[in-house]
Amino acid sequence: MDIDKELFLWSVIADRRDLALLFWSRAKNKISAALIATLLYKKHARNEKDSSYKKSADEFENLAVQILDKFYQADSQTCTKAIIRRIPAWGNVTWLDLAIAADAKQFIARRAVQDLLNNIWFGYIDQRTSHKKIIFSTLMIWYSGFLLYNKELVQSIDKAVFLDEQTKKLNSTENQTSDNKWIVYKKRPGLYQYLINITRFMHTPYIKYLYNLYFHMIFLLLFSYLILCDFLPLYGFPIDICTSAKDSKDRKDNVADKNDNQPSINTSLIGNRYNASTSGSYESQRRKRPSGIEFVLVIWIFTLVCEEIRQLFATEAQSKRNAIIAYFKVFWNKLDVLAVVLFFIGFTLRFIPTVECFCAARVVLSIDLTVWFMRTLDLFAAVKRLGPKLVMIGEMVNDLRFFMIMLIVFILAFGVSSYSLIHGIQKLSWHLLRDIINHAYWRIFGDLNTLETFSTNYKANGYAAFILLVGYMAVVSILLVNLLIAMFSNTFTNLQVDTDRIWKFQQYTLVCEYLSRPSLPPPLIIFSHVWRLTLCIAAKYFKLNFFQEQYRRHLNRTDYKISLDEKKSIAIELAEDTFGDDVYYDFLKIGSKSLDETELDEERA
């Protein structure tokens, strides 16, 4: 039993901060211990609503960050590998696992962790390869075999000076070994190596991201074409039954104008031909079954459903219920479920032989297309210039939500009163609410056309409506709009420093998502699911060594954690202890200096 470790955990749980720092300085695996303390203190802060716990959590996170920075400066390669090293003393977790669990954004944002995430994101592809070549290789797969590849996932050009000294102290001359297939592979010349390069290229998370981006754009184009040009009724009612009466009238007027411009010779013959062509054109717009694009989209979204189910079952949780809760905590997962449900509702409604259901199907699918376009924003999270902006947009939406509550109050206060003064008694209907909102809302943006309805009304109701309009425009257009701008500016200022840190923290989720995704994007992803299902059935029921080995490799393909030999692990722990002692002594010096300054100020007072 590690006495210092147990006493350290007791001190943290009992909120004995000074003792926790003392036992932390005596314990091994200081970064792991500091991150665990950060996790526990943050949980205390959430439960107790006490800012002192948050302060203690920040202190331990800063200690872990300082050790990490010193380690990275001394030996970047070993430090990067140490981040994903399994630590038996703490249940085979890694520094990265603990940092994510503790929500240690400052730790994740450090260069050492970001280098590791970049290594995983680009896989074996040499990061010196230009993005143009990589994008070209995604379009021309054969070219990917000629790109530059690293021999290791964690690649560094720095020399391991400090760790070599620690290793020499242990008389260790053994090379690092790992049970992870990501780390080392032997170079094979010729055609076989070319095929291996293409395989590694296709399994790279960045390449998976690009293919998902390409196919998502194609999906949006097909869906947009369906809604705009190809969503035709299956039964005997007019094509434009769902459009407004004004649009239908305009179309008829256009047809009439074209007929008026035709020559008057052989009008009966031309009329018969026109009627025949019109009838033929009209009948050609009818279908007995949905178009091919609709079936393609159905298959496409079905493959997306399969992928979402795979992600749900792949969620690490103690029970299925917790897995479902964790799945729906992610905003984009909620959006995916909503988009899928809306699509199948709309696709089902179009088969019901009523005009109302066909129009409802068009409405539902149009809203669904909007959701799929919004889903594109998640793909922009990988772009360094756009990702932080999405973080700001998310925070500003919270400001807008509370602002809209105040705005609705003023809209209804002015809209109901002024509408009743101008239009008098109205018949109760759902359209009345829309008319009131139209009457009040668009005035915020300068639409004053309805002002003409009472501009010459010099009666009491006209003056009352005029006074209400003046007050409404002063409060909403001047006060509330500028208040919203001030709220956005304040949010932007507060987040400007932390936005990059938050985005880097979210990069971990993005990397893990595409690391676990199959190589093929939807709808081709169905082949990956069939292959995985085949391996699972063959390994479980036939129990052949070949299938069991292939299935084991398939499951471990996303495992980036490594296990080092004992001597190498001891060398890392010695280096960690050395840097930890330096950081702890610096921390004590700063603490004693601030204490002396406080006592001096009290004496002067």
UniProtKB/TrEMBL annotation:
Q: Where is the composition biased (Polar residues)?
A: 261-283
Tell me which UniProt keywords the record has, alphabetically.
Membrane, Transmembrane, Transmembrane helix
Q: Start and end of every Ion transport domain?
A: 286-499
Q: Bias category Basic and acidic residues: which stretches?
A: 250-260
Q: Where in the cell is it found?
A: Membrane
Q: How does it sit in the membrane?
A: Multi-pass membrane protein
Where does the chain cross the membrane? 209-228, 330-351, 402-422, 463-485
Disordered: where is this region? 250-285
The keyword Transmembrane is annotated on this UniProt entry: yes
> Where does the TRPM-like domain start and stop, copy by copy?
5-109
What molecular function terms (GO) are annotated for this protein? ligand-gated calcium channel activity
What is the recorded name of this protein?
Ion transport domain-containing protein
Q: What is the lineage of its organism?
A: Eukaryota, Metazoa, Spiralia, Gnathifera, Rotifera
